[in-house]
Amino acid sequence: MARLATMSGQRRRRYAAAAPRTLSQPIQMHPTLVDIGLNLAHDSFDRDRSHVVESAVAAGVRHMVITGSTLESSRAAIGLARTDPHRYRATAGIHPHHAREFHAADVPALRALLLEPEVGAAGECGLDYFRDFSPHEDQERVFRQQLELAAELGMRVFLHQRDAHDAFMAILREYRPRLAGGVAHCFTGDERELRDYLELGLSIGITGWICDERRGHHLRELLHRIPPDRLMIETDAPYLLPRDLQPKPRSRRNEPKYLPHILQTVAECRGEAVETVAQATTHNALCFFGFEK
Length: 293
Ligand SMILES: [Zn+2]
Prior knowledge:
With 293 residues, the protein is of the alpha/beta class. It is 40% helix and 15% strand. Mean pLDDT is 90; it is low at 1-29.
């Protein structure tokens, strides 16, 4: 016991010398990561969901935020989160793709889901004019309905935006003073979008998009502009398999166990140690989504 205590004391001093930290930040020898965007309720995980989670945990991904994108998938996300509340949080919301199916009469059902203790943020919500699966008026209406609920319930928001920056900002600016906070999930935008988000006090979620040498190039240059207390990482699995992953899984399905690969790329782009980025992003995610200490 005494030897162990001495060893950990030495380690603590070595770490403290390498990077000054506040007492509230836990000292960890191995990175504990949080995947803030995982579609674990997706049916591609139906066959082997528990194995997917075990592999992620073995890779250091100890906590996961399960994304809800319809009433039904939000219910499923909450159900999964309930199986291990220490490990998971869920989001509850309506993705802009599904906005046309969401009506005023559904608002009370969404409100009830947001009040579940496993829910760490409202969303994913926002605007997507790239795919345009729902008419813009529906997308904007449903985005507003969710921001209104988040404001009313004092919740943070998990945000999605693609090819709709100006409309998105106009709506978000209206609600921002009443919102507890937000994260722009799967950020793939340009310098102006990043600046606008940071000015609004949003956090930024980075996915394996950054690992794509064709599409992720502009993003790599922007990464060092994100303050360490605003940065989080995510896989968006089963989507967005990091393109440079070697060897590639035959299924092409993304999994939370690949989060360390994204972490590594983010650290390289920022010119920081992997451990530094791991600790910052984990600390931010645990606070943002309300995990217990
Ligand atoms: Zn999204």
